[in-house]
Design brief:
- The chain has 561 residues and is an alpha+beta fold.
- The protein folds into 5 domains: 11-103 and 188-207, no CATH class; 104-187 and 210-251; 257-443, no CATH class; 447-483; 491-558.
- The chain is 60% helix and 8% strand.
- It contains 23 helices and 12 strands.
- It has helices at residues 11-26, 30-36, 38-41, 54-57, 61-72, 74-84, 92-98, 110-121, 125-128, 165-186, 195-209, 212-225, 260-265, 270-288, 321-335, 339-348, 359-372, 382-396, 402-421, 427-442, 445-479, 491-524, 535-558; strands spanning 131-132, 138-139, 143-149, 155-161, 246-250, 255-256, 290-292, 300-303, 307-310, 316-318, 529-530, 533-534.
- Strands 1, 2, 3, 4 and 5 form a 5-stranded antiparallel beta sheet that branches.
- β3 (143-149) and β4 (155-161) form a beta hairpin.
- α5 (61-72) crosses α6 (74-84) and α15 packs antiparallel against α16 (339-348).
- The radius of gyration is 31 Å and the shape is globular.
């Protein structure tokens, strides 16, 4: 019998598991349900769920997966959006479907949310705001937004969390964590995507989005970083109207950056806007190390014809100085046609095993750079480049850290958007001054001196503590206290199978003993009698039969008859 992780089988979670299995079956993913053995674990029959209809099966595999995520609600939509950021690992056709995921949902009626809103602000809305419109201007899976006016006559947007959404999301995150372990256990090819890591990342980012105070702090940091950047405007946050589940920011009355026709009517220079946007994202990456991780068209507005105003700061990415330096080295390696530098960066970032074979990787990187170096932008096919990178990463088992995946998503999303403004836009040419500035920052004499002092301190600690550590090690070896632990990652599975098999054999022996014992009791006619038969013997046969049937079903359910 194969081991299955134990799920939380509370009534609430059990109903949600049933719903997930039902939706997967409905959209034609019965094979995945069977391979993960979900119905067997949940002790529910496969026939209880409706099979996919011909109308559903005519859609592609990728489209049906997108429909599954959409139907299962906010947490699963966020999961799809997170997967869409992993363009290096997820096939391009699936990416095309996942980017269609929208978390626009019907709003909670104001009559149902008004009392909840007043509880959040601590007083009637009429007292807290001079004006509060009852129709939301936006509605998403986690929150919905309303237009309002403060008593100081400031136009604001009030973003309020949906009632009980935190409980719903926490339940789904717990279930997804279980499903990720099951998937890694039974679907080996899924390990390339790191399901457990994705769910962990999803939980972290989603719980950050649920904390509106954290979003408010993000806005303040972002505003501080761009206070001297004239062409970027960050909305003001109103802390007197903000709490964990309610966020109030300045209303941005602008045009979405993707609405090029309206921008042209307003007199905007689209090419200059694309350049400003490029500088906007590059400053976040190479100067601040704090970037807007979800710069899709709905989160970027244009005001005063030429000024970009970002909104929705729930999903932010962070890069420490070491990662920023490694990213700059990666770009230098590409521009200087230096595969060895790129490989060194991948090793430093933990994306590549230092002990692995890099000869073929070096050749593949050099070939890739040579094909696209100085090629005109108009001739470059982004899908083909992504496809080649995916193939190369899979071939050489290259991993990418989650913060770098967010960074790649942000750059890719903005470049796609910028090319709609300017078809000739190319972000790497804009990146050169920022990379140069980062390199010069690394060569700053004060920083070199500081790093030198750190190195000397580490060397001093090693010289001071080294002899003592060696002495302790030698003493342990002398006393026989030194031990090396060897670990076989596959051995525990074998031991588990042996243990289960031996338990079955023991159980079978017990059943056989019960049958033999009951037969003897019946033949001896011992104990109380019922219609001429020994009562104890009949009870023994009954229990032996029940245990035998239970054992047969357990073996059939495990798939190892």
């Amino acid at each position: 019998m194969v081991y299955i992780p134990r799920f939380d089988k509370s009534y609430r979670n059990f109903r949600r598991y049933q719903q997930i299995v039902g939706v997967l079956m409905k959209y034609g993913f019965a094979e995945i349900v069977d391979r993960m053995r979900l119905t067997a674990h949940l002790r529910i029959g496969r026939r209880l769920f409706a099979q996919s209809s011909p109308a559903v099966r005519r859609f592609s595999y990728e489209a049906r997966l997108r429909m599954v995520l959409q139907e299962l609600g906010p947490t699963f939509v966020k999961l799809g959006q997170l997967l869409s950021a992993r363009s290096i690992l997820v096939p391009p056709k699936l990416i095309e479907e996942l980017v269609k995921l929208q978390d626009d949902v019907p709003p909670v009626p104001f009559s149902e949310i008004e009392l909840y809103l007043e509880q959040l602000v601590g007083m009637p809305l009429g007292e807290k705001f001079a004006k509060f419109e009852k129709t939301p201007i936006a509605s998403a899976s986690i929150a919905q937004a309303y237009r309002a006016t403060t008593h100081e006559s400031r136009e604001v947007v009030v973003k309020v969390q949906r009632p009980n959404i935190k409980k719903v999301i926490n339940t789904d995150l717990d279930i997804l964590a279980d499903l990720a372990k099951i998937m890694e256990r039974y679907i080996p090819e899924s390990k390339a995507l790191d399901p457990t890591g994705i769910v962990r990342e999803l939980a972290q980012s989603t719980r950050q989005e649920l904390d509106f105070i954290n979003e408010g702090r993000n806005i303040e940091i972002f505003a501080r970083n761009f206070k001297d950047f004239e062409k970027v405007y960050v909305p003001e946050i109103f802390w007197d109207y903000t709490a964990e589940k309610i966020l109030t920011i300045e209303l941005i009355a602008g045009v979405k950056i993707s609405q090029t026709d309206q921008l042209q009517k307003a007199g905007s220079d689209l090419k200059q806007l694309a350049k400003t946007g490029g500088q906007f994202i590059l400053k976040q990456i190479f100067e601040d190390g704090f970037f807007h991780a979800d710069p899709h068209p709905g989160n970027l507005f244009v005001i005063n014809q030429d000024t970009i105003a970002p909104i929705d700061f729930g999903m932010m990415g962070r890069l420490d100085e070491t990662i920023m330096e490694e990213v700059s080295d990666l770009l230098i390696g590409m521009t200087q046609k230096d595969p060895d530098l790129i490989i060194r960066v991948l090793i430093n970032l933990g994306s590549l095993d230092e002990a692995g074979e890099v000869f073929q990787l070096r050749s593949d990187i050099a070939s890739f750079i040579e094909r696209y170096y100085e090629m005109p932008i108009s001739r470059i096919s982004i899908p083909s480049i992504v496809g080649e990178i995916i193939e190369m990463m899979a071939k050489h088992e290259i991993r990418v850290a989650s913060n770098l995946l967010l960074l790649m998503k942000a750059i890719g999303t903005y470049e796609d958007l910028a090319r709609k403004l300017d078809p000739e836009f190319e972000i790497f040419s804009l990146a050169k001054p920022y990379v140069r500035k980062l390199i010069m920052r690394r060569l700053d004499l004060k920083k070199i001196a500081y790093n030198g002092l750190k190195t000397l301190r580490d060397l001093y600690d090693l010289l001071r503590d080294g002899p003592r550590e060696i002495e302790l090690l030698l003493r342990k070896i002398k006393k026989g206290q030194f031990a090396i632990e060897l670990q076989d990652r596959g051995l525990h599975r074998l031991m588990s199978e042996i243990d289960r098999s031996s338990n079955r054999i023991a159980f079978s022996l017990i059943i056989a003993a019960m049958i033999i014992g009951s037969s003897l009791i019946l033949s001896l006619k011992a104990g109380p009698m019922l219609k001429g038969y020994s009562l104890f013997g009949m009870i023994g046969f009954l229990f032996a039969g029940l245990f035998g049937i239970w054992l047969i079903f357990a073996i059939i359910r495990s798939g190892k008859l």
